[in-house]
Amino acid sequence: MFPHDPSAKRSALKVSLGTGKAPDYEPELHGSNSWWGDMWLFRLARALWSAIDGHDNGDATRRMEERNNEDEHKTGKRRRRGEYFRFNVEFLGRQPRLDDSNKMPEMKSLAHEAMLHSKPLIRLARCITAELFVFELESIPRKENGKYSCTGYILCRHRAGTPELEVLLENLVKSSAKFLFRGRTLPGSVRDRSSLDRDGNVRKRVCFDVDSKEDFFSLHLRERGPESYNISGSPFSVNWLIQQQRLGRAFGWPDGEKRKRKDSDEGLPKKRRSQ
Length: 275
Hints:
- The chain is elongated.
- The chain contains 6 helices and 12 strands.
- It is an alpha+beta fold.
- The strands form 4 sheets. Strands 3, 4, 5 and 8 form a 4-stranded antiparallel beta sheet that branches. A 4-stranded antiparallel beta sheet has the order 7-6-10-11, covered by helices on one side. The protein has a two-stranded parallel ribbon with strand order 1-2.
- The chain has 2 domains: 13-117, no CATH class; 132-245.
- A hairpin with a 5-residue loop joins strand 10 (219-222) and strand 11 (228-230).
- Residues 1-9, 25-33, 44-59, 72-78 and 256-275 have low confidence and may be disordered.
């Protein structure tokens, strides 16, 4: 739908699914040779969703954040943090054996109950909803009075006339959803004339200024509650959008550069000079 989607190469949303754990039980590493086989097959065969497992993944996530902060400090470049979700089922006792098929109904019920009361699942759903929207510049901004004047549009991956867009807009209206630019609410609703074009596609115009093409700006979607979520690719810089949208490149040339004469062209008659 969007061949030059600026968010295509950004991994902004990460979801990790555990296979279940027993917090008070740690399998012995010595003794039975069957432990490796049981655990490997057990983990491979099951993927159960549940509440966040903060102990196992919190430390790793914090270490990753610290490394990112160090890299940004060294390079002076900002990067999008994204969202990380970890879901895992916590068993009441020992982990069931792989071949214990009688435990499957119980494990299914545990996973269902864990997800039913999972607040992170609601956050994940809203993150996924926000990721359905992208932002594209209308053209390369021009510098006026020391600032770059920019115009762009918030678009949606779902197109007009599809049930997906109809359900999406209906749910967003019910949740009083609003778009935010740099933390400020944009006027209009998601289903009025300011957000839709003549065909019914989402196309919300956003005008703004930046001091530098490297300055970052954010676009969020907020539903019920105070928390808002980045749309796909946000936060952006103007230069990054120009590069990803391939704005300013010559038509017909993949990189905007004049095509070099191929080796196979050598020896062909050249155009004669006019006498």
